[in-house]
Each structure stands twice: as C-alpha cells, then as structure tokens.
Amino acid sequence: MPMAAKLLYTPLEERDIDELAYALHSEAVYQYIGGMPSRADFDQWLHHSLAGPPSKATGERWISFTVRLTESREVIGRLEANIHNHLAEIAFLYNPRLWGRGYASQGLLWLHGQLREYKDVRSLWATTHPENQRSASLLLRHGYVPAATQGLPVLYSYEGGDHVFTRSVA
Ligand SMILES: CC(C)(COP(=O)(O)OP(=O)(O)OC[C@H]1O[C@@H](n2cnc3c(N)ncnc32)[C@H](O)[C@@H]1OP(=O)(O)O)[C@@H](O)C(=O)NCCC(=O)NCCS
To answer: Quick check: CB of 85 below 6 Å from ligand 1?
Structure first.
C-alpha cells in the first residue's frame, strides 16, 4: 500500500468555505448524507458549524477541522465531532477525486488523537446510511464495531435506518 501524503488539519474558518465547496460540493459526497445541497445550503451548513451549538443547555461542544495536503495546501476534506454526554459523534467528508488513497484513514486516526484530549469522552460513535460502504469500511478498519440500534445513547446524527458504529477512545 503506498504511503499517504502528509496532511494538515486546521480549525474550520470562514475563509475555508470556497475551497471546501470546491472539494466537497458534489453529488458523490452527498449521495449517502442527505443528497446534494444547493451551494447556499452548503455554505449555511458550514456557517452553522462555525457558530457552534445552538444552546449551551445541551452541553454539546462541536469541533470542526479543514484537512489539506501539506505540500500543496489543497483543501481535501473536513472532519468534525459533536461531543456530549461523555461521547463524541464523528463525521468525515473528502474530495471524491482523492478517495481510496488512505487520507480518510489518516484523518480518522488524527481525530482519535484529538478526542483523547477530551477526558470526559469515553466512546466514539458514527452513524452511516446502510449503503455507505466506504464509510462503513473506514470505520471497521479503525476498530469500530456495529452497534445494535435498540438502546442507543442519544445520537444527534442518527436517523432511523442508519447503521451505527462505536469504539472506545483508547
Ligand atoms: C467515507 C469516505 C471518507 C471514505 O474515504 P476513502 O477514500 O474510501 O477512505 P480512505 O482514505 O481510508 O481510503 C481507503 C482505501 O484506500 C486504500 N489505501 C490506499 N493507500 C492507503 C494508505 N496509505 N492507507 C490506508 N488506505 C490506503 C485502502 O486500501 C482502501 O481501499 P479499499 O476501499 O479498496 O479497501 C469517503 O468515501 C467520503 O468522503 N464519502 C462522502 C462523505 C460521507 O459519506 N461521509 C461519511 C458519513 S459522515
């Protein structure tokens, strides 16, 4: 397997939005995550992410990173986690042009390292559309196991019919 290029992770900023749109605003990326949004909705979602949780009452913390190739600084994707109730719900999106090169794997390992710094986080969770095989493969490759959908903790990303994966933070 070829060595993946070095990646750079920076907290999401307003000025990343156009480059993120160039990388991610496509049918392939949104096939299993709600369908292709308009460009306005794409931008609005990132603004929503930048603004943070709507109310402090839920105790949520959102972290969101832009991923770049270190050498060229090209934006290739984004990583996010919603931390609440001693768990983190994670998500990842990459430019389809660069799928199958291990960048999402590299990013996920990096995100795990970030989440280990949150001492109150005990478990990691991801929800995926049942046909999102790339996402499921990525999660299974990195120690996640399928979770039964009965008796799940509160997961804000869960929609009925989703497959759910979990692992410990360690
Ligand atoms: C889900 C998603 C991030 C997976 O991306 P990906 O490119 O398949 O994942 P990786 O970067 O880990 O690449 C894995 C593949 O690259 C191969 N690979 C090549 N070089 C590699 C390397 N150095 N390290 C690891 N894997 C490597 C692996 O063997 C694997 O191939 P396989 O799928 O044939 O087994 C991507 O499909 C995506 O952005 N989808 C749209 C958004 C989405 O649905 N997100 C999930 C819900 S939030």
So the answer is: no
User: 169: Cβ–Cβ under 8 A, 6 or more apart, which residues?
Assistant: 88, 112, 115, 116, 121, 122, 123, 124
68: number of CA atoms within 13 Å, CB side? 15
Q: Answer whether 0.90 is exceeded by the pTM.
A: yes
Strands, E assignment, 53-114:
61-69, 75-84, 87-94
Ranges of each domain in the chain: 7-168
Q: CATH for 7-168?
A: 3.40.630.30
Ligand 1: atom nearest CA of 94 is: 39
Q: Which residues of the chain have pLDDT under 70?
A: 1-3, 57
DSSP class of 1: -
Chain mean position to CA 167 = 15
What's the CA gap between 128 and 110, in Å, rounded?
20
